[in-house]
């Protein structure tokens, strides 16, 4: 049985909704899923999983502080264990998926891409293959103006049920490819 870990941080619930859809997709194809908020994932060994999924909102082109601390702490541990090697050779069967929610009152997805690429580097350093980065447009909670007149237009209510269903379908397809 394939194993996946879904580790996420959320402030307003958008990233949790995406994590839930991903979890449903993996469970639908029989994956053994560990589903953890970043605060619960301390000590988790990525190498115990076929696929590690990391999710967070984009904050000023970056991962939020709790996720940054988690990623850096794990990399320091992995470096100490000798898992970070020159040329970052691929470890067969070890994969990562990055998912990032963003709102875009300023420049939209361009604010999220640097955060996704940054998070992916923590996996590439230990030889994991980053299969994809998913960027999910989401409501900017608590700031109606930022959710209605930003570059992305009216994004209230995002991600919608349809958006989450698409994420679940994408997860099913990804799981079947492993």
Give a concise summary.
The radius of gyration is 16 Å and the shape is globular.
Please tell me about this protein's structure.
The protein is α/β, with parallel strands linked by helices and 178 residues long. The protein has a single domain, classed as 3-Layer(aba) Sandwich (Rossmann fold), CATH 3.40.50. Helix content is 34%, strand content 20%. The chain has four helices and five strands; from the N terminus they run βαββαβαβα. It has a five-stranded parallel β-sheet with strand order 2-1-3-4-5, with helices on both faces. Strand 4, helix 3 and strand 5 form a beta-alpha-beta unit. Helix 1 crosses helix 4.
**Oligomeric composition of the shown chains:** single chain
Q: Ends: how far apart?
A: 11 Å
CATH names the topology as: Rossmann fold
Major sheet details: 5 strands, parallel
CATH class: Alpha Beta
Instruction: Domain count, please report it.
Output: 1
- Total count of strands: 5
The DSSP helix count reads 4
- The ordered string of helix (H) and strand (E) elements is EHEEHEHEH
Strand content: 15-25%
- Our Rg estimate from Cα atoms comes to 16 Å
Helix content: 25-40%
């Amino acid at each position: 049985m394939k194993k996946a870990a879904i580790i996420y941080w959320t402030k307003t619930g958008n990233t949790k909704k995406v994590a839930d859809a991903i979890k449903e997709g993996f469970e639908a194809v029989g994956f053994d899923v560990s589903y953890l908020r970043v605060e619960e994932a301390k000590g988790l060994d990525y190498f115990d999983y076929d696929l590690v999924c990391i999710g967070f909102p984009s904050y000023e082109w970056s991962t939020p502080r709790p996720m940054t601390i988690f990623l850096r702490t794990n990399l320091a541990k992995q470096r100490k264990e000798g898992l970070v090697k020159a040329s970052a050779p691929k470890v067969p069967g070890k994969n990562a998926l990055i998912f990032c929610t963003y709102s875009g009152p300023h420049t939209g997805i361009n604010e999220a891409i640097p955060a996704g690429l940054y998070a992916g580097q923590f996996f590439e350093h230990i030889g994991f293959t980053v299969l994809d980065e998913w960027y999910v447009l989401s409501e900017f909670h608590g700031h109606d103006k930022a959710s209605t007149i930003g570059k992305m237009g009216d994004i209230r209510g995002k991600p919608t049920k349809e958006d989450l269903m698409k994420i679940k379908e994408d997860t099913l397809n990804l799981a079947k490819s492993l």
